[in-house]
Amino acid sequence: MSLQSKLRWGILGCAGIAKRSVIPGIRESELGEVTAIASRDLDKAKETAASLDIARAYGSYEELLADPEIDAVYIPLPNHLHKEWTIRAAEAGKHVLCEKPIALTAEEAAEMVAASRKAGVHFEEAFMYRHHPRYKMIKDVLASGEIGEVRGIHGTFTFNSAANKGNVRFRRDWGGGALYDVGVYPISAARLLLGAEPVAATVQALFSPEHDDVDMMASGLLEFPGSVGLTFDCAMWAAFRNTLEVLGTDGRIEVPGAFVYPKEAGGGNFFVHTKEGRREVEVPEVNQYALQADNFARVVLQGEAPLMPVEDTVAGMRVLDACLLSARSRTRVVISE
């Protein structure tokens, strides 16, 4: 067990999610501090470091990985670079928090897990929503039997950025597309709440020639054991939605802002509907990115079990592989280990 009081973070890249959410979250955490940031463009790294008051800026990812005063790295790079830089970071002895999707395939994810285990470092996928206490609260409602037996789940995560033709999410060879970008959220949430893995996937997608033939909209069905289904839709070319509904025999749970939500009071609350009426469940006002950083740090510094074990990460990529194959082939795809 380490006597170190704080985890020292380096950021590989100047992506918007890092500047807007993850770096502020680490700063708000109890056990983390941002020590350095790197870009392949030194001027960009210096500019970002100055704007966010980060002490060190590097003009290459290799330089940051060579810094002995960095304990862990956060990787918000384009999806196709996740595998390379996770493995290189692990080989440099750095713990790794990598943005979702963790990789382009389950096979890549398994290679990343093997590299992190060989290096003896902690490796985790950055699903910030899982660190919010409301998902434990939702699971507690399900366990209580208040809404009866779960019959189905419906999840959405859609937004419209189609006009931005230079977006890296519209590069097919870089792992672009709505399933990779936001479809992973309802898929992950259903697996979490049901505590099971789906056995088959059927997905219909809109592949856009204007956007390098990536899936700009996808609607899917995941078949879970016990005849329970997740229906979901995800998009980068549709109006904004971000919801989750769990339907039971005696009621339902409604989560209006399922993955991202307004910061004002009540923005993260959810609702339980039964024959007795509609009940609002108040959840703590917290920064889920700060909780993610603290949970990660406790694994590294205090030896706690991770909330996102690597086995869950690889299983999630296996499901995503099946969804993408189904969408391209227009067939039902059986999911097997």
Automatic annotation (TrEMBL):
Domain Gfo/Idh/MocA-like oxidoreductase N-terminal: 7-123
Signal peptide: none
Cited Gene3D superfamilies: Dihydrodipicolinate Reductase, domain 2, NAD(P)-binding Rossmann-like Domain
InterPro entries given in the database record: Gfo/Idh/MocA-like_OxRdtase_N, Gfo/Idh/MocA_domain, GFO_IDH_MocA-like_dom, NAD(P)-bd_dom_sf
Ranges of residues in domain GFO/IDH/MocA-like oxidoreductase: 135-254
Pfam families: GFO_IDH_MocA (PF01408), GFO_IDH_MocA_C3 (PF22725)
Keywords: Oxidoreductase
Similarity comment: Belongs to the Gfo/Idh/MocA family.
Protein name according to UniProt: Gfo/Idh/MocA family protein
